[in-house]
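Subject: sequence -> structure tokens, single chain

Hey, anyone have a minute? Need the predicted structure for the following. Not urgent.
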Amino acid sequence: MNKLQELKKHLKRGKVYRRADLAKWSKSVDRHADELVKDGTLQKLAQGLYLYPEVTVFGEAPPEEEVLVRSFLKDSRFLVTSFNAYNSLGVGTTQLYNQKTVYNHKRHGDFKLGGKIYSFKMKPHFPKKATPEFLLVDMLNNLDKLAEDPNEVLAKVKFRVTEMNSKKLRKSLEEYGSLKAKKLLEPLVA
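Reply:
Had a minute. Here:
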């Protein structure tokens, strides 16, 4: 059995591999990774990041987003969200955005992973799961980046705040709110 076939034996379908993962099984990791990409065994997702795709009846499945981001960061402490999530708050945001935001402790910047652009933002604190209270605070943190008219959104936020759990909202604002978000929201949750 040649070294390339030996490397293939270690691969599991649906898993994302870093170059360092492949190096455990190959002394010529760059050459072998290139060969595996050329023969269709692996898909290159980003520099040094590869997928051994799961095969379904519809063809090769893309990697699960959580697996992709976890492999890229080499960390499981992150939160993937999108400006699209603000649309669920009922405050007049309706735009659809192609970019996802990844709050994390390690990386900052925009990266293309598996054909999608992710905006990585280093934050000291973020929840494990995006709650409506967190999303409202996060929306106010990013208000100037939204396509909607900020004044119209803020008018609806004033009404929406009255329907939310004020204790949870205050806690989210305290933990995750920017100075601007705090200035806008504190008078409404006092």
